[in-house]
Design a protein that fits this description.
- The complex is a heterotrimer of chains A (about 350), B (about 400) and C (about 350).
- Chain A contains 13 helices and twelve strands.
- By secondary structure, chain A is an alpha/beta fold.
- In chain A, the strands form two sheets. Chain A has an eight-stranded mixed β-sheet, with helices on both faces.
- Chain B is mainly alpha-helical and about 400 residues long.
- Chain B is about 80% helix and about 0% strand.
- Chain B has a two-stranded antiparallel sheet.
- In chain B, a hairpin with a 4-residue loop joins strand 1 and strand 2.
- In chain C, about 65% of the residues lie in helices and about 0% in strands.
- Chain C contains eleven helices and no strands.
- The chains are: A alpha/beta (about 350), B mainly alpha (about 400), C mainly alpha (about 350).
- Chains in contact: A-B, A-C, B-C.
- Chains B and C meet through helix 1, helix 6, helix 7, helix 11 and helix 12 of B and helix 5, helix 6, helix 9 and helix 11 of C.
């Protein structure tokens, strides 16, 4: 069996290295740069959180790394190395050895990501039988134990049921079982709990984390909620308009965030101890048009710290005070320049352009 | 979760009850309509239907007609007699020959059924791969060519295609006969000769079983079964020609039926292909397809196993719904290709003004069509809920 | 009739697609993005395109008409002019009933050779094909448009009423439509024509002309089909805010239907009408072949095929000339129907 899974790579470097990945689509209106020069590194068994609003390109990024995007009008540049091997140029036939077997994905909406006319058991076993040379019966047993490991009651009954017979939380557990089926080394979890009831969100996240630890799997956890990555990721990358605008070890990020966008994201998390009538801090305006992005910093039109320089010149990714902390900002939060910029704006009554145009 | 299953069964039963009631109403209305047709002929229906001719032979015809119609009773009593007669299979007589219409139906109905079965199979066999291909390669030049052809086929009336095929393929190339009919399997069975039908069923059953068993080892029992069935039919044909020349040899029958079946299938192919293509393009954008791709499933398996299944339910409905077109088409095609089916009988009945026979043919076709729609509706309801719920949730 | 049967998606929705989304695209491309590419799932096919039938051909057709659309319009105008001229006898291509025995069965590709002076040849009796085709166009178009007009007059009105008022009236009309639809179209029309012609032959009733009988028969078949579609369309529009607002302001029902609902339902109906005319023309041909069409000597495209069907192998031109005209006319009507449907985003409903 030429299955890549069984080849000991012997590669000592990071599991996943993404360098300068750019992904754009041609549309009727022009080229949309959904992912713009993103570089990431992920070690074995670790978790990387990718955080951003909808439209920030985080979902496209994870699919672009896995090479799952539809090919029409797609341009991909940059390098994706998995266990040191360049996979960004591989055709679909070669990628098939990675999909499911080496890297797997959990999708946002469990209601639509299972085939409605296929039994749950078959949806798990078909991945197993595609990648592992096992008998149908063995695959069935494996599927049953997978369902048990994601804590689905009566797994042998569920195997013969259809997705519509399960609740949303149960379906997401099935999706997790599907993703885990062939023991991948890397798991992409794309907003795995967004579509679920608040009550089961934590359960599902904990389940994923538990399985991840048990299997020594690396994970890319994509979410719009900084609260979700807080206790679960070693590192966090904040994305805005297709770019990584701040990246740091989780603790560092929460303790000392530099990018006004990260600050705004954090402020928008509802706090459990806050009074229920306290208005949530929303970020005014909308993410920029990715066909004609603003010239300077992409966040400038919505930024309370905005200065003239921000509108003209895009800040490069620069190192922060702590090791492994990078951000893009001319007037970072918590620095004298930043405080001064904000104070100046408040004095002059300068409000971000987008907040006037689109804030409601 | 068990409750869901139970409720579903209950819902199905209720649906079945409602559909049966609808079926009954429709059948009564349809029979009343056909009953009315003859009663609305002006003047004395007997004189209208058999206007000319004197002498004892014609007197006998008229007496037979009069007793069939039961004209001396009241209107509703007549309808009651007609309805009970229909249920018991009294369909009147062909007055020029005195033959009971039921005898004529027994000879011609299976021929029409064969024609429709062949064309439906042909349509599905051609349309499904074309539709899947169109969805898979949507927007390519090949897809465009298929779509244009399908659009052209939709505009091609079946009688025009029948004439074109019988002229070029039949008369010019002389590949296939342009008319006539050799007995097949179903029509023989209808007159008590069950041999060919049973043998062909045996071949299909063995083929499907063997195919499914072999297919299971590859995880594809369904595909194996279908393939096995096809192999069974082919084997039957070959063995029939080689070993049982004459009796079990259905080759001449197939030759006679080929052009009419192609003609009838052409329109259906266009309808099915277009529908399946657009349906599958939608399905291919579903999340579960991306998930299947992320599992590392091959494109072939994604197309045939994941994407075709949901779309095939739509196809089933449409196949049922176009049955009306198929029946109407078969009537015309039989006349053009001289196939002695119901269409031919209708044609003759119109030209010979055998109104009672015509009335019976119409009521039989209508009842058959209603029953078919009933079966398709119910079948769809049995298979449907998980699809509908998934789509609603999306 | 071929094609036009109950459809699983027989709901021509209001123009939800095109213009509104287009206007917002400028601002919301990123949202479209999330749903279109990431959230909504990717396409499996490597080179596949994300556009369906609706998307295709929309771009260039948005304001102008494509070459083929103009071609189709040109063909229909040509046929209508020819038909009208032939009917009123302003331009004659010879008398369609004039028998020239020496020309019988002669024509292009005929075994007996061409007929000099008759470009398209003559029929089996020796009548000029051009003259008969032109007059046949009149008959076929008359039956086609007449029956669809009847279908719209009754079916369209009933559908509009059912969709607008809803309730018991709606369910009653819908079940009536369903019962009518439970007989295959060709068979229903066949029964009607056969018995209507039967009563005409009896001589006691006022004998209706064949064309009128055909219009009635095909029209009756069209009523439930058009009724269902117009009902579905009226239903969606009647639930829209501006209609509700008009009703809330106390406008009379008739006025609201006429002023608010009908104008919105109409574009969809035009598309359906074109497809229906095409189907009715084919139905006329099918009925003629079954022996219940327009009876000779009046020519129609259908009965020209039916009468000389026996000459197919010796004088194919007699059969293929009207067949070709039917094909091209149906093709043009279908194409125009499709163009209109794409323009007004009418869902696939009649095919």
């Amino acid at each position: 069996m030429s299955d890549a899974r069984f080849e000991e790579s012997g590669y000592g470097g990071p599991l996943l290295e993404v360098t300068d990945l750019t992904t754009s689509f041609s549309t009727d209106r022009g080229v949309v740069r959904a992912v713009d020069g993103v570089s990431l590194t992920l070690e074995r068994g670790k978790t990387l959180g990718i955080v951003g609003e909808s439209g920030s390109g985080k979902t496209v990024l994870s699919r672009s790394i896995m090479n799952l995007l539809p090919k029409r009008g797609l341009q991909r540049e940059g390098s994706v190395r998995f266990e040191g091997k360049e996979i960004s140029e591989l055709p679909a036939d070669a990628m098939r050895h990675y999909w499911g077997a080496q890297m797997a994905m959990i999708f946002q909406d469990p209601m639509t990501s299972l085939n409605p006319v296929m039994k749950i058991g078959n949806q798990i076993t078909e991945a197993i039988r595609e990648h592992l040379d096992v008998t149908p019966d063995y695959a069935g047993d494996l599927a049953e134990s997978l369902l048990a490991s994601v804590r689905i009651p009566e797994p042998h009954v569920r195997l013969n049921e259809y997705p519509h017979q399960l609740s949303g939380g149960m379906r997401q557990r099935v999706c997790i079982a599907v993703a885990l089926a062939c023991g991948p080394k890397l798991l992409f979890a794309d907003e795995p709990t967004t579509a679920l009831d608040v009550t089961v969100q934590a359960q599902v996240l904990d389940l994923i984390a538990g399985q991840q630890a048990e299997r020594f799997m690396a994970m890319v956890l994509v979410t719009h909620d900084l609260g979700v990555v807080a206790g679960r990721a070693e590192r966090v990358a904040v994305m805005y308009a297709g770019r990584v605008v701040e990246e740091a070890p989780t603790g560092v990020l929460f303790a000392d965030m530099k990018m006004p966008y990260s600050e705004a994201l954090l402020a928008s998390i509802p706090k459990l101890d806050a009074h229920s009538h306290v208005r949530l801090n929303t970020i005014p305006g909308r993410p920029p048009d990715l066909v004609h992005p603003p010239a300077g910093c992409k966040f400038a039109p919505r930024c309370p710290y905005v200065q003239d320089r921000c509108l003209e010149e895009e800040p490069p990714l620069r190192a922060g005070p702590t090791a492994g902390h990078q951000f893009r900002c001319w007037f970072p939060v918590g620095t004298p320049e930043g405080q001064e910029a904000r104070a100046k704006n408040e004095r002059e009554g300068r409000v971000p352009a987008a907040a006037v145009a689109g804030g409601h | 979760m068990e409750a869901t299953t139970g409720r579903r069964d209950y819902e199905l039963l209720r649906l079945l009850g409602r559909r049966l009631l609808q079926l009954l109403v429709v059948l009564i209305v349809v029979s009343f309509f056909t009953f009315l047709l003859i009663r609305l002929l002006p003047g004395d229906p007997v004189q209208t239907i058999i206007p000319f001719g004197q002498g004892p032979a014609f007197a006998h015809e008229r007496a037979l007609l009069r007793s069939d119609l039961g004209l001396n009773k009241g209107f509703f009593a007549q309808y009651w007699d007609y309805l009970t007669g229909l249920v018991q299979g009294h369909l009147g007589h062909q007055y020029s020959s005195g033959t009971p219409v039921s005898t004529l139906v027994k000879e011609s109905l299976p021929v029409s059924l064969e024609l429709m079965i062949y064309s439906m199979i042909l349509a599905l066999v051609v349309a499904i791969p074309l539709g899947v291909f169109g969805a898979y390669r949507a927007g390519t030049r090949a897809d465009g060519a298929v779509n244009t052809t399908a659009f052209g086929l939709l505009a091609l009336p079946n009688f025009v295609l029948a004439l074109v095929l019988s002229f070029f393929v039949g008369a010019k190339l002389k590949w296939l006969p342009t008319g006539g009919y050799t007995a097949g399997w179903l029509d023989r069975a209808f007159v008590g000769d069950w041999g060919p039908l049973l043998v062909i069923l045996l071949f299909i059953a063995v083929g499907v079983t063997v195919g499914a068993v072999i297919g299971r080892t590859r995880g594809l029992p369904g595909a194996g079964g279908v393939l096995g069935g096809v192999v069974g039919v082919i084997l039957f044909m070959v063995l029939g020609i080689v070993l049982f020349h004459g009796y079990y040899d259905l080759w001449p029958h197939m030759q006679d039926m080929l052009l009419p079946s192609i003609t009838l299938a052409a329109g259906e192919i266009a309808v099915f292909q277009r529908l399946l293509r657009s349906d599958m393009i939608q399905t291919l954008q579903e999340n579960f397809i991306t998930l299947a791709k992320a599992k590392g499933i091959s494109n072939t398996r994604i197309l045939w196993r994941h994407a075709l299944r949901p779309s095939s339910l739509t196809l089933l409905t449409v196949a049922g719904l176009t049955a009306g077109t198929l029946i109407g088409g078969a009537v015309v095609i039989e006349v053009i290709f001289s196939i002695p089916g119901m269409g031919q009988q209708i044609f003759e009945a119109i030209n010979a003004r055998e109104y009672v026979a015509l009335q019976s043919y119409i009521v039989i076709i209508a009842v058959g069509f209603v029953l078919l729609n009933f079966v398709v509706d119910f079948l769809y309801a049995v298979l449907d809920p998980r699809i509908r719920r998934a789509r609603v949730a999306a | 009739m071929p094609g036009l049967r109950r459809s699983p998606r027989a709901t021509p929705g209001p123009g939800s697609g095109g213009p509104t989304i287009r206007d917002e695209v400028g601002e919301t491309v990123h949202e479209e993005f999330e749903s279109g590419f990431s959230g909504g799932g990717a396409l499996v096919a490597e080179e596949a395109v994300l556009v369906g039938d609706e998307g295709r051909g929309r771009g260039p057709l948005k304001w102008g008409l494509s070459f083929f659309a103009w071609l189709a319009i040109g063909w229909m105008v040509f046929i209508v002019i020819i038909a009208v001229l032939a009917k009123i006898g302003l331009v004659t291509w010879g008398d369609p009933q004039n028998v020239i025995a020496s020309c019988a069965r002669k024509g292009p590709f005929a075994n007996e050779g061409t007929a000099p002076g008759h470009l398209l040849g003559c029929d089996s009796d020796g009548r000029d094909m051009i003259a008969r085709l032109a007059l046949g166009a009149w008959t076929s178009l008359l039956v086609g448009t007449g029956s669809v007009a009847l279908g719209f007059l009754i079916g369209g009105t009933l559908g509009l009423i059912a969709g607008y008022f809803g309730g018991r009236l709606d369910s009653f009309l819908v079940s009536t439509f369903n019962v009518l639809l439970s007989v295959p179209g060709v068979v229903l029309a066949l029964a009607l024509v056969a018995f209507l012609q039967g009563s005409a032959q009896a001589g006691t009733a006022t004998a209706l002309p064949d064309v009128v009988i055909l219009i009635i028969a095909i029209g009756v078949v069209a009523i439930p089909l058009i009724g269902r579609i117009s009902r579905a369309s009226a239903l969606t529009w009647s639930r829209r805010e501006f209609v509700l607002a008009a009703r809330a302001q106390g406008a009379k029902n008739g006025r609201v239907m006429w002023r608010e609902v009908l104008p919105n339902v109409l574009p969809a109906m035009v598309s359906i009408a074109l497809l229906s005319v095409a189907i009715a023309i084919v139905a006329e041909g099918a009925l003629a072949i079954l022996g219940v069409g327009v009876r000779p000597p009046t020519p129609s495209w259908g009965n020209m095929i039916a009468i000389d069907r026996g000459e197919l192998f010796t004088s194919p031109h007699i059969v293929f000339e009207p067949a070709l005209l039917i094909f091209l006319t149906v093709l043009a009507l279908n194409y125009l129907g499709d163009v209109i449907r794409a323009k007004f985003d009418v869902r696939e409903s009649a095919i």
